[in-house]
């Protein structure tokens, strides 16, 4: 160290000043080259508020929140992809009482006739449904049966989708009753791959079939090569059709059905009257969004984002108050996802809150989109209460 009273020489002072200038210049260079500060956006997503439909009753009620979301982004679809149906629940509130899986291709629609006639199958699709019975912890016998599914995607196969949806409803109710919980409500959720104007929707909620819907069913009563190998294959093979992305030309609902023949009586495809019998149930499924948004529309119709006007549906037609969109991409924009409620005997449900659907501007030009949805579908959520009658 320099001794007390030592003074730096002019040369030393010059070198010291040069070092200071060098350090300052380096700081300025680093500051100018650093990327601009970014706002932390981990988990950032467009805010969707809960909308109050009606106040919950205060006496002897059970309230459950439900959400459904098709997490499949079509841009990620690949052959041999891993996918399926999942039911998640709060393990501090519920415990699994029982569970099963429905393989639509293997479930009979009738008990008579040949093996193929008993199934009434038009296309071997490999679609499934998962069903679970959830018992509320700390209760004697309070619970709910939840089913989720992804029905066949091809828009021209309305019959097969109607068959699958009917089996979903029948088997879910049967599961509830045979599990020893006939007083539990049932919930049907998922991507049904049909719109509110499709015959499958009307059959499920109990609306009368329109002539155009009956015609759509009639035109789709065919037998695909995946069911009858003797059918000449003139287009993509069955597995290629099954793996096809929904943005293909096949999405044209008027596209001619390929690799299929007209159904014959021996094939056992359900007639319209037989479909109605398949869907017969004392308590008809009700859509949480269609029901809830109808109630809200009585107070402020202009604020409701619904699909009925686009589909030119009369307000009285069930499905007219479903969300404006549940799947929104560059190639198609439609409604495919639902939450249906089936009340048990002596209990009635009501919708208390709904998660607001996205604005169209938020989803434009298409999903998936960062900050909106990581899938080509949006999530739906509802708060439901049940009370005894």
TrEMBL record:
Domain Endonuclease/exonuclease/phosphatase: 78-377
A matching Pfam family: Exo_endo_phos
Keyword Hydrolase listed: yes
Signal peptide feature range: none
Extent of Acidic residues compositional bias: 239-251
Keywords from the named record: Hydrolase
InterPro entries with a match to the protein in the record: CCR4/nocturin_mRNA_transcr, Endo/exonu/phosph_ase_sf, Endo/exonuclease/phosphatase
Region feature Disordered, mapped onto this chain: 1-40, 228-252
GO biological process terms held by the UniProt record: nucleobase-containing compound metabolic process
Domain of life: Eukaryota
GO molecular function term, any single one: 3'-5'-RNA exonuclease activity
SUPFAM superfamilies referenced in this protein's UniProt entry, alphabetically: DNase I-like
Family: Belongs to the CCR4/nocturin family.
Name of protein: Endonuclease/exonuclease/phosphatase domain-containing protein
Source organism: Hericium alpestre
